[in-house]
């Protein structure tokens, strides 16, 4: 956030094609900045020719297609040493630059965590200047590896806040987007300002990093002093009456009742700590620090120094090996790497450690291999179900081959084999569908939203209703059980880590596992209905399947009849009507519909709103929005 907007472009000049209105300003400034030793990206050169008008790429990714996300901030290359920097346009006589220069003049204080000023470039005959700063990245991504990394970041931010307050400066906008870390050590190949999860903007979704604890010390900084205030008379008598759009829930904010803004800084940093603690379950012991910093009574909040001491007291009670132990974001899916051994963001075989794709040489067909015990119950159940292939209701994945494994001197090899199945595309864990019709170009096993694994975020498919029938299958029989005496007398005692909410599961009290299957598929139905508002009519089927009383749950046959009964009550036009996931943005819907949407074929990713650009897809011209 800042206290100004960059100077408006002369309305008499025509807008440049392919650029957004706020980008014209940087194009106008490019020759001057170049004369001062700073080179902007090709997109912002006055003679820029979009690369897609010269040569089209099959994947549709162009670095100069990435627009600037920040109206008054842009990256540049300093020609004197080739280093990447950030340029920010500020008012030459504004309070932001005065506060910033004051803090930068106190660089001798080791607690100073404000980002250094590398250069100030005054524009001739203008009220505006550019501040050059080191190129940094958001402080919370790549994700934290361990508690030590969190402690290091929070220690530096609390020390930096103590420093600013000791010098009578209020930041007043401490939000995650205004907290950064040096990039060079953690992401040695750098990143793109417009896509900080890629190194160059192309290919996207590809980032190589190192854990912070392995390259420490890592420097953290405060940025953006557009709302900062300086109180020469000291922080005890400071007062202001104003609200903050980005922090509406801070209790004392008011346009009429004055309050001390130094307490607001404490609250804001406390909110950031809360967010991190919410993201990582292992950070729970540090919650009391965040709670004290976000107390409703401003006077009961600790100073930055006291909060730092509190943080260190808690850390001192945690064993050193625990502080260095790997931690994970709550929402992380283990299938994504980059979180381990400095790997990029690709699939590491952590979950599917016994499964891999392969090509069958005899016919060039893509298959899936799974390693199983030769005499284990999984292969026995699988073979038994596969022997019943004549039953049209059999939706278990076909078994193509069983390959005994040769011994390699490992005891685990002596009783192992490989089972071969068709290559499928998973829609939910343990469920999948044949990919040949829906994704005719196939997918990569490690990145099922790309055809070849590179480039990523590129995906072409057909709607299932346009290529039906599509075959759906059950996979993974590692927990499957066979009851020769029938399902009515079947009993089992075990819990399931991934289905802790199923009421009857117990390690001591026997229950009928067939009812558990009904409940599990009901949970999957609930997930889909939660994702698509148009599926709400089918909620009663899912609710009956997830009844608390196992004996009141319908059999699969009854549930199917119920599903078809509800479908019969819906008009055919309604059943064929386009539906959207609840989190689909309006812009995505417009893009889909303009391309023929999901009713025909489309590719991933969506193009951003912008100027028209012709691309070729499946022999058809598609306009880039």
TrEMBL record:
- One GO BP: mitotic DNA damage checkpoint signaling
Gene3D superfamilies (alphabetical): Transferase(Phosphotransferase) domain 1 (1.10.510.10)
Is Transferase one of the keywords?
A: yes
Task: List keywords of the entry alphabetically.
Answer: Kinase, Transferase
Its GO CC terms are: nucleus
Drop me one GO molecular function for this one: protein serine/threonine kinase activity
**What is the name listed in the Swiss-Prot or TrEMBL entry for this protein?**
Kinase-like domain-containing protein
Annotated Protein kinase domain residues: 1-348
Organism, by scientific name, is Roridomyces roridus
Query: Is Transferase set as a keyword in this record?
Result: yes
Under the heading PANTHER family, the entry gives: OVARIAN-SPECIFIC SERINE/THREONINE-PROTEIN KINASE LOK-RELATED, PHOSPHORYLASE KINASE
